[in-house]
Amino acid sequence: MSGSIFINIFLDGLFAAIAAIGFASISSTPRRAYVACAVTAAAGHAVRYVLMRPDLLAVSIVPATAIAALVVGVLGVLFAPSIKCPAEVCFFPALLPMVPGMYAYHALQALAMCLASPGGAGFQAAFGAFASNGLTCLFIVLAMVLGANVPVFLLKNIAFRATR
Amino acid sequence: MTLPDRAIQDIDDDAGFLAEYAAWLWGCGATCTRLERNVMRMARALGADADLLVLPGHVELAVTPAGGGAAVVAVRKMNSCGIRFDLNAALSRLSWELADGRIAPSEARVRFRKIISAPPTPAVEVVLMASVANAAFCRLFGGDLAAMITVLFATLAGLRLKQLMMGEGHDVRVAVLCAAFASATLSAGASLFGWGTTPGIALGTSVLYLIPGVPYINAVSDMLGRHYLCAFSRFMDACVLTACLTAGLTAGMFILGINSSVL
Asked: Within an 8 Å CB–CB cutoff, is residue A82 touching chain B?
């Protein structure tokens, strides 16, 4: 049981690392930053996985994302001077696997459904789905950015001098 | 010639250079906080003070010689090179090199031209890496091997289509809509032909590579830095792209007769 949990945590981190490197390439991230992005993403996503697992800590997605983003932010700031890149170059790709893309387009799909069913129960259900998905998406992004920016402001001397 | 003397003499050039630097730094995805810090640092190195007004479409920079005198205002249109972290890193490094006196102002201008003419990551490399990344992303959402393979090829086709359309000068919103449609219709094969046990996850994650994650993050970062106009502009840009993605996905599902409940 515990063995499979560790394997799952490892796999979660591994796939998050692969996702981070691939998404980093879309934004022309310097190649020297790939390893730092991968390690940061793996640590952040694995932390969120552990926090959210129902049989472990069962934390809801917003606070779990904030804590995971804090880990990502700390690692991003610490790695930044060694890869000679601004901290966000390191932690943005690491945050991308946590961006609530599905919530975002589910919210917009629900909004379109509101237009398709202008009155009655259909509208209420669609509007409920829009509000639920939209607010969840908004709060996750807020939690992510707040979590990742706290280390940037606490460790200003490192974060803003990394490229010096 | 001392540095302040040079700055007073060439204040017009300095203002233009700094405004162009700011326009490129903003365009490549830097937050407004970084923009202000870098530009102020460079202005001080040039023997001047700078006041920066960052608007969603333009940057306005008022440069005053450190010893006093009339300000020169330079306005530049924001660059739209797309998110480029390589430029962000190189431009930030340039600001420190100038601030620390490791390069002369004239050399900084030459280096700036060289940095902004650097090519982005090759398109083929991006397509391959992003496809593998999206397949890994599918696995994070609980997709099985069949779903991962479906997402890999759906991403490959969709992202290549987007690159080709962007290369031909089509609007980014149209390109995102078409790419989402292509990826959704291809990944719908998992639902239609019964590939694997998680076809809904394949369909749902096949378009996630198009989510504008960096603008969403930058929007909140700018909001925290009290740059509300830029924050709202970036947020709305991201929302519009997400709406285009949703339209492409929904159109693909509608044409193939797939119910949204599978997502």
From this structure: no
